[in-house]
Amino acid sequence: MKVCIIVDDYMPYSIKVAAKMMHELAVEFIAQRHQVSVLTPNSTQKDILVSSVLDGVNVYSFKSGEIKNVNKIKRAINETLLSYNAYKAYKTFVKENHHDLIIYYSPSIFFGSFVKKLKNIWNVPSYLILRDIFPQWAIDNGILKESSMITKYFKYFEKINYDAADTIGVMSKKNLEWFQEYYTENKKIEILYNWADNKAVTHKTNKYRKQLNIEDKIVYFYGGNLGHAQDMMNIIRLAINMKKYTQAHFVLVGAGDEYELIEKEINNKNLNNITLLSSVNQDEYKQMLSEFDIGLFTLNKNHKTHNFPGKLLGYMVQKLPILGSINPDNDLKDVVEEYNAGYVTVNGEDELFLNNAIKLLDENHRKNIGNNANDLLKDKFSVEFSVQQILNKKGE
Predict the structure, then answer these.
(1) Which of 219, 248, 274, 316 is the 20 to 30 Å CA partner of 176?
(2) Per-residue pLDDT tens digits for 228-259
């Protein structure tokens, strides 16, 4: 079977979790004897269409404007043009290369019209992997007003995105419940957990510990988006509260609209227990995970929808205990605590967040919980299971 995967971010040029997850999905499809084509934008290429092969995956990138780590207006314009630019680049390719299944990833919400065109040409089903319910989370966090014209604009494209799907896979039970309440169209909606392969970095070094002069520290590591949706000041507060625990150090790696805010707070409060680094490639990121001690995450408390950050999967692969903070009623807490894989509190419960962080200073405790986190990965978040679940939907 030939599978077409559409995603707005892909390896090897991206360091984001979505790119890594979708590549792992593509590789697993190949392992199960399918052919895979990935269609993805690239703002750095000059040619309208460039083809390459990565780990057996046929990658066809099309020329696009910048949609990552740019100002919101520029991003909105360039994302709006994704479907137009994609069809312009792939028009001949699509006619000459029939596929049997379309899998597309959101965010972005702007591939819906392109997917509809592909479905009409190939007469095949489509599966939407929905990881970010936008613009709802932006409304919840006060970034957008619910009745504004820009919100209506985004919702228009959001609806097209959902309408293009035969099946929609959301990432948690709470998200499923929310979606069934607010999106009442006759769609097949199911839980499709995030996934990761379970290949840990076995050749460990102290490269980054040496570079950062933290060889004797217990490192709380955060890798990924540093944005409003995460509320990175939540981690800053934790670091301030842990200043007296001199053995603890925080390493934050990534990019996003709160990067400069974090940098400013570190300097203003003289936080010598935090190191802030720009994004790194996937190989470096994995090496960092193998060296550090605790996997850290945070979500903005104003979210009404329920997110399962993909970064947790990388933590689980390397057997790191999870320490996190979520929006109220997020069922991520139940999933993690069922396996005793870490500690999860509601954003704003600063004292409890601190107490949980202190518990993880104990090495034996960290090791036990980290092993549990890896068990959780094997049982619920394997890429093999995700591929089979998607294939089962095609057969229905």
Answers:
(1) 316
(2) 778 899 999 999 999 999 999 999 999 888 89
pLDDT in the model for residue 127: 96
Tokens of 152: 């209506």
- Cα–Cα distance measured from residue 379 to residue 376, given in angstroms and rounded to the nearest whole number: 5
Dmax over Cα atoms in the chain, in whole Å?
64
Q: What is the DSSP letter of 70?
A: S
Rounded distance between C-alpha atoms, residue 125 and residue 167, angstroms: 8
Measure the CA–CA gap between 24 and 153, rounded to whole angstroms.
33
Alpha-helical regions (H) of the chain: 17-31, 72-80, 82-96, 112-122, 136-140, 149-163, 173-182, 207-212, 233-241, 259-268, 282-291, 311-317, 332-338, 350-359, 363-380, 383-394
- Cβ neighbourhood burial of 299 (10 Å; 0-12, 13-18, 19+): buried
Position 13 scores a pLDDT of 79
Q: What residues have CB less than 8 Å from 284, skipping those under 6 apart?
A: none
Query: Which pLDDT value is given to residue 196?
Result: 80
3 state SS of 104: strand
What's the gap between Cα 262 and its chain centre? 21
Q: Is the pTM of this model over 0.85?
A: no
d(CA 90, CA 239): 48
Give 16-49 pLDDT, tens digit per residue.
778 888 999 999 999 999 999 999 999 888 899 9
Residues 267-317: tens digit of each pLDDT: 999 999 999 999 888 788 889 999 999 999 998 887 766 667 778 888 999
Helix 259-268 crosses helix 233-241 at what angle (to 10 degrees)? 20
Conformational region of residue 226, where left means phi above 0, alpha means psi within -120 to 50, and beta covers everything else: beta
Q: Rounded to whole angstroms, how far apart are CA atoms 329 and 305?
A: 9
Nearest to 271 by CA among 296, 235, 223, 299: 235
